[in-house]
């Protein structure tokens, strides 16, 4: 039985992915900054800032997935927070690499989360694919440095995969719940121009991409993890409202208000790029949820 170590496995994606991996017959362990208990999952401690890690976590792992990172949508992006967002990702990959190297540990693969923020947040006609260069805005820089650190695993001959993730839609948690909240209480409306793309992915499809990255030895390098059918913020708002059976009668939320409220972080809701999933599809990956209607039927439909 192969062991998958998920660093940052206590978060939105990690908990779900861990369960799916156990169902598939893998042993799962996680690295966390806290002592937490999950059924059937061994938790090891680490402290990224201090560069400390329980070496047993590395010794017992066949694969490492790194999902750790300070949440980008939780707090305003003051310079301290921006540094935390960057360091928690770059330094966690660095610490994992240093320990794997020190222990001379052979791994079947190293898989790191990255984000579609790699390409920058631009509302335009361009469709970004894995060969495009990183943006030089804050998130583009974070993603570039995050991925560069993971590339060090390749120098050890370890297959390395970077999952450039879109906005993950899950049941009762994360971005979709936040979008549903105002609509539920009759104050929902599109944000800013409403034309910005929301490069989304259903949690089941994302987990299946991670599982494919584990099991498909041909996979290497960066892959976009976004649904094949792109949607704008306005179209998404309308679809959520339909699912919730709520009217949308308010005007769009003006961009300037969100800029005042959220500061630089407003970019993640006011702008958005079209991103292609062609590369992963060409590798034989089949999405369960290609369009937003099917995804919302599954994620919201059950809630009603
Ligand atoms: N969810 C999305 O829509 C989305 C979209 C694109 C990319 N991603 C990326 O995918 C990864 C996983 O996402 P997620 O939604 O599961 O994230 P999450 O729920 O915010 O959880 C990430 C985990 O990172 C750890 N963490 C938080 N702050 C940290 C810090 N300062 N230093 C070290 N570790 C820290 C936490 O684990 P402990 O508290 O147990 O240590 C947390 O459970 C993240 O890197 C995220 O950027 C997510």
Short précis:
With 304 residues, the chain is an alpha/beta fold.
Structure notes:
The protein is of the alpha/beta class. Strands 4-3-2-1-5-6-8-11 form an 8-stranded mixed beta sheet, sandwiched between helices. A two-stranded parallel ribbon has the order 7-12. A two-stranded parallel ribbon has the order 9-10. 42% of the residues are buried. The protein has a domain at 3-168 and 202-225: NAD(P)-binding Rossmann-like Domain (Rossmann fold, 3-Layer(aba) Sandwich). 38% of the residues lie in helices and 17% in strands. Helix 5 crosses helix 7 (233-244). NADP nicotinamide-adenine-dinucleotide phosphate binds next to helix 1, helix 3, strand 6 and strand 9. NADP nicotinamide-adenine-dinucleotide phosphate binds at residues 8, 10-14, 32-34, 48, 67-71, 84, 88, 92, 113, 115, 165, 167-168, 174-175.
> End-to-end distance, in Å?
40 Å
Ions and ligands:
NADP nicotinamide-adenine-dinucleotide phosphate
CATH class of the domain at 3-168 and 202-225: Alpha Beta
Number of strands: 12
Kindly report the average pLDDT value. Answer: 95
Write a concise keyword list for the protein shown above.
304 residues; alpha/beta; eight-stranded mixed sheet; two-stranded parallel sheet; 38% helix; globular; binds NADP nicotinamide-adenine-dinucleotide phosphate
Task: List strands and helices in order, with pairings.
Elements: E1 3-7, H1 12-23, E2 27-32, E3 41-47, E4 52-53, H2 55-59, E5 63-66, H3 79-102, E6 109-115, E7 127-128, H4 138-150, E8 160-165, E9 167-169, H5 175-184, E10 200-202, H6 203-215, E11 221-225, H7 233-244, H8 255-262, H9 267-270, E12 274-275, H10 278-282, H11 292-299
Parallel strand pairs: 1-2, 1-5, 2-3, 5-6, 6-8, 7-12, 8-11, 9-10
Antiparallel strand pairs: 3-4
Bound molecules: NADP nicotinamide-adenine-dinucleotide phosphate.
The site of NADP nicotinamide-adenine-dinucleotide phosphate has 25 residues, from helix 1, helix 3, strand 6 and strand 9.
């Amino acid at each position: 039985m192969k062991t998958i170590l998920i660093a940052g496995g206590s978060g939105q994606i990690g908990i779900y992915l861990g369960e799916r991996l156990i169902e598939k017959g893998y042993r799962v362990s996680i690295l966390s900054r806290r002592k937490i208990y999950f059924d059937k999952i061994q938790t090891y401690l680490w402290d990224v800032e201090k560069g400390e890690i329980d070496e047993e976590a590395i010794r017992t792992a066949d694969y490492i997935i790194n999902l750790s990172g300070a949440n980008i949508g939780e707090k305003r992006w003051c310079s301290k927070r921006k540094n935390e967002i960057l360091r928690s990702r770059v330094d966690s990959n660095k610490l994992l690499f240093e320990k794997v190297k020190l222990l001379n540990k052979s791994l079947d693969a190293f898989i790191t989360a990255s984000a579609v923020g790699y390409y920058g947040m631009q509302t335009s006609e361009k469709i970004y694919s894995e060969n495009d260069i990183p943006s030089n805005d804050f998130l583009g820089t974070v993603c570039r440095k995050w991925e560069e650190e993971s590339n060090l695993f390749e120098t050890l001959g370890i297959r390395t995969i970077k999952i450039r993730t879109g906005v993950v839609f899950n049941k009762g948690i994360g971005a979709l719940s936040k979008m549903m909240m105002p609509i539920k209480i009759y104050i929902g409306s599109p944000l800013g121009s409403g034309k910005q793309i929301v490069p989304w992915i259903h949690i089941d499809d994302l987990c299946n991409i991670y599982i494919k990255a584990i099991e498909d030895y041909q996979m290497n390098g960066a892959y976009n993890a976004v649904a094949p059918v792109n949607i704008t913020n306005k179209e998404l708002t309308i679809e959520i409202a339909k699912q919730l059976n709520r009217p949308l009668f308010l005007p769009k939320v003006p961009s300037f208000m969100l800029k005042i409220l959220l500061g630089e972080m407003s970019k993640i809701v006011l702008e958005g790029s079209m991103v292609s999933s062609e590369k992963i599809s060409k590798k034989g990956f089949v999405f369960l949820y290609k369009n937003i209607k099917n995804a919302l039927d599954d994620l919201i439909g059950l809630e009603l």
